[in-house]
Design a protein that fits this description.
Length: 421
């Protein structure tokens, strides 16, 4: 009988026959969820025979939930993700109307899923706008609970905005708002705890996977006490908690000052040889340029919410776009994790068989890795690469590839399954 994932002494325990809750999703969610599950089941069977399997348990959210229960995100769904710890979801329509929060944001906040993890790797055969896509291998850790996600904003003209403006003027003596009468205001909270838990998770990820570096991406030259503090807290944390596993840029600078550049370079080279994770930082705008021109200089990226939003889409575009870029929202302390397609519901192609299931399939592969079922994930990566390199693709990639064969969502999934076997 299938059982739940549990958390014992801070470690996930995944039974061989495991129950995984899933949200089908709206729009193309219906088109890609079934095929994704078939691919995952085939990969597990190929790796473990009958020993391991997933029992998929549907939970409701979005339009399907609304039509059946009158609620967009029933409490039972949130409870299920809490009870079963690991889950997966298709895209959800953001309901339009006052007082209705984004369903994705509601889930992330309720479960305090503070890491948005987006691995960015290229699969052979996938069209890319960069010259050396094979050298793109980045892992974005985007902070998921603070910064703009806190949603503290006051619309111009409202009593709140007027009160807030007064607060700035009267309590802080600030009179540098250029057009005070027509200004809206936004507040950007960035905490030490919130930054540290995100950066700690990114360093642990790099150590566990033997990745060469963590880049702290920030706009601290302008926003000194939020983004600048994020960078400083990151360096301090690395030196305090991982002194034997990391070598930081401030340590390099200090050595350079005390013993000269040659000694500092030697220390850096030794740290790299010993497999230490190099902790460095880059200003966001420079990072966006560098990641295009020298993607091989960056491996794990730890960044705040808004930066992470921009970076995720640019990097996804470098390796084939949102149709094949996976994502996960994780709380590494409680173990809660929801793996999800990073694109939306694509209403323009829903029900036409044109959707690329790649994003959800790769998110499911991330889920298998998180569960410790890496061989099954590897089967999925290999089979997808094989399918892409044979130029058998769905319509989004077909439009960009010469000599490709156009497959429907279902046909693409069947081709991947054939390649798994
Ligand atoms: P979208 O991602 O749904 O679509 C943007 C474009 O990409 C469209 O041309 C679409 O056809 C294409 N596309 C997206 N996924 C594709 C796939 N798997 N295969 C082939 N083509 C694909 O973004 P849009 O139109 O801004 O949002 C539509 C709805 O989705 C909105 O209600 C939005 O709030 C919601 N949304 C939900 C997200 C989630 O649940 N995580 C994320 C983003 C948007």
């Amino acid at each position: 009988m299938a059982k739940k994932v549990t958390l014992e002494k801070g470690r996930l325990k995944v039974p061989d026959k495991v129950i995984i809750p899933f949200i089908e999703g709206d729009g193309i969610g219906k088109d890609i969820t079934g095929p994704t599950q078939k691919i995952v089941d085939a990969a597990i069977q190929q790796s473990y025979g009958k020993k391991r399997s997933i029992e998929w348990m549907e939970v409701l959210a979005g339009e399907k939930a609304f039509s059946q229960t009158g609620e967009w995100m029933p409490q039972a769904t949130i409870d299920a993700f809490q009870e079963y710890i690991i889950g997966i979801k298709g895209p959800l329509t953001t309901p339009v109307g006052d007082g209705i929060r984004s369903l994705n944001v509601a889930l992330r906040q309720t479960l305090d899923l503070y890491v948005c993890l987006r691995p960015i790797r290229w699969f052979k055969g996938v069209p890319s706008p960069v010259r050396y896509p094979s050298r793109v291998d980045m892992h974005i850790f985007r902070e998921n609970t603070e910064d703009i996600y806190a949603g503290i904003e006051f619309m111009t003209g409202t009593p709140e905005a007027i009160k807030f403006r007064k607060l700035l003027e009267e309590n802080f003596g600030l009179d540098n708002v250029r057009f005070p009468d027509s200004s809206s205001f936004g507040v950007k909270p960035v905490s030490k705890e919130g930054s540290e838990r995100l950066i700690r998770a990114s360093i642990l990820y790099a150590i566990e996977r033997r990745l060469p570096s963590v880049t702290l991406v920030h706009k601290g030259n302008i926003m000194k006490f939020t983004e600048g503090a994020f960078k400083n807290w990151g360096y301090q944390l690395a030196e305090r908690e991982f002194p034997n596993h990391t070598f930081t840029w401030p340590q390099f600078e200090a050595l350079k000052k005390s013993q000269g550049e040659t000694a500092a370079r030697e220390a850096l080279a030794n740290a790299e040889k010993e497999g230490k994770v190099i902790i460095k930082d880059v200003i966001t705008d420079a990072f966006l340029q560098e990641s295009l021109l020298r993607p091989f200089d960056h491996s794990v990226i730890a960044t705040l919410n808004l930066n992470g939003d921009y970076i995720s889409d640019q990097l996804a575009a470098m390796v084939g776009g949102i149709g094949i870029s996976p994502g996960a929202n994780i709380n590494y302390q409680s173990g809660y994790a929801i793996f999800e397609a990073t694109h939306g519901t694509a209403p323009n192609i829903a029900g036409t068989g044109k959707a690329n299931p790649g994003s959800l399939v790769l998110s499911a592969a991330m889920m298998l890795e998180y569960m410790g079922w890496e061989p099954a994930a590897e089967h999925i990566y290999d089979a997808l690469e094989h399918t892409f390199s044979k130029r058998k693709v769905t319509s989004d990639l077909y439009a960009l590839m010469e000599g490709a064969t156009l497959l429907s969502t279902e046909e693409f999934a069947n081709e991947v399954i054939r390649n798994i076997h």
